[in-house]
Amino acid sequence: MSDRLFIFDTTLRDGEQVPGCQLNTIEKIQVARQLEALGVDVIEAGFPVSSPGDFNSVIEISKAVTWPTICALTRAVERDIDVAAEALQYAKRKRIHTGIGTSDSHIKYKFNSNREEIIERAVAAVKYARRYVEDVEFYAEDAGRTDNEYLARVVEAVIRAGATVVNIPDTTGYCLPAEYGEKIKYLVEHVDNIDRAIISTHCHNDLGMATANTISGVLNGARQVEVTINGIGERAGNTSLEEVAMILKCHNNIPIETNINTTKIYPTSRMVSSLMNMPVQPNKAIVGKNAFAHSSGIHQDGVLKNVQTYEIINPRDVGIDDNAIVLTARSGRAALRNRLDSLGVTLSQEKLDQVYEEFLRLADKKKEINDDDVLVLAGAERSLNHRIKLDYLQVTSGVGVQSVASIGLNISGEKFEDCASGNGPVDAAIKALKKIINRQMTLKEFTIQAISKGSDDVGKVHMQVEYDNHNYYGFGANTDIIAASVEAYIDCINKFK
Ligand code: KIV
Ligand code: ZN
User: Relative to the CA of 204, which ligand 1 atom is closest?
Assistant: First the structure.
């Protein structure tokens, strides 16, 4: 008989902590509903005490989804736990995730404390959380660098205090797979009451070992994994959900099952990437653009003879449909709605009509509309409420001449225009923009996402602009890459506090 592995998704908490990946509540609900359709068991919806936005998102996600347990993060602090319990009030199944650092460096430098006092604080937090909910998960932050004997004492004490799940995070992504597996095995063998709780993995990818460590933890007794879509998360990210799910599906000699509907993996990946403006690296396992592309002659020859020669996963198993209907200017609303559905986006009739109008405009400019275009169109209303909007942009540039740009902005209904010359068209356009928005702002990062198919494709620009000692992240998408760059800059400016 196979064991059940619980999938705990933290895209909306650990994933959302990434600079520039912040979502508004409506977008979080959209992702949470998609995670429910994907079949995750637990959704970590936020850290309610950290901001009113996080608090509100936990409330709204709790109302919006039915089956998954909704989890809220706290520190081992009573006020955090009070606020988390309040945010979880509408959840049909609820969990409080509380914890404290247990490695010697956390104990000494973060808490200026000692091992015994940390155990007392951990126990008190779990007991306090149990006053509100029956399901309490405890995290031993930096467990990856915590001495196993002490970790076992902490784990035993929190289970005695009522913890139902014990999370063993490799917070810094330091462990080797064998070492992390040994740690889980040590807990299984040395914690007397371990049968009263589920052991959870939570691995970061600083050394590229997050998935390997997670699988090693599972093979040694963990029965919950904490993961994110596309592996997004702090620094180098978290373990990616799609990798764990597909490893277990491909290696069917491992007697462990999840509830994941793998055909929803690709649409979920596209949705998260698009809403968070976070491109997926082309060679990313399972969901990267090249994950199923065979380019060398030898590989193509083998695949044509028998697909199993070089393919261990059927792309359809992860929801990639090569035969999907191609969308063009002649496609109707039904075809567009169908594609949006398969990408996990549900729109009201009114919104669909608006997106369809935009779709036709784009389809006039380019021959085929791909999934990324559709997601960009569906998310376009994010800029509708912007105070500053791009009215027009005209640029002349060429080889051996200075680029010149003139720009028109609509600021709260009033029109402004200016022009500038620059070192290339983007520089000229941004200089013209800065003449109207006269503030001390510095462009820190500028990424143009590769055009995937033709020269008429929509180009996407991600930007980071520093203003008043804060970094702001913006996004623009347009068939004209100069316009996309200016839109991204304006997106940043609209976020200035
Ligand atoms: O990486 C980590 O240790 C965490 C905890 C807060 C669970 O994200
Ligand atoms: Zn983490």
Answer: 1
